[in-house]
Amino acid sequence: MDMKSVTKGIAAGTVAGLAYYVFSAAGPMKKMSMKRNARKTLNSAGSLLSDIKSVFM
Predict the structure, then answer these.
(1) Residue 55: pLDDT band by 50, 70, 90 thresholds?
(2) Which pLDDT tens digit goes with each residue over 27-52?
(3) How far is CA 12 from CA 17, 18, 33, 57, in A?
(4) CA 6: distance to chain centroid?
(5) pTM for the model
(6) How far apart are CA 38 and CA 29, in angstroms?
(7) Nearest 10 degrees: Cα torsion 33, 23, 42, 6
(8) Which positions ≥6 away from 22 have C-beta within 8 Å?
(9) Which run of H or of E encompasses 42?
(10) Which segments of the chain are extended strands (E)?
(11) How far apart are CA 48 and CA 54, in angstroms?
(12) How far apart are CA 33 and CA 26, in angstroms?
């Protein structure tokens, strides 16, 4: 068994559980702003990754 893979799995499960808890405990208006901010963050991360990929290609 690879300990690095186990550690990554535990970390991913912890992050998912924490995100679920925060989202379920938030009120309706807070949920809307969290969704909007998450979408912006994902778009920014995708843009950053594509820029980094274009530098190395």
Answers:
(1) confident
(2) 776 767 777 788 888 888 888 878 87
(3) 9, 10, 23, 30
(4) 19
(5) 0.45
(6) 14
(7) 160
(8) 34
(9) helix 28-56
(10) none
(11) 10
(12) 10
Structure tokens at 15: 């992050």
Token representation of residue 32: 């809307």
The one-letter amino acid at 49: L
Written as one letter, the residue type at 38 is A
Q: Which amino acid is at 22?
A: V
> What is the C-alpha separation between 4 and 2, in angstroms, rounded?
5
d(CA 8, CA 53): 24
Helix (H, G, I), strand (E, B) or coil at 57: coil
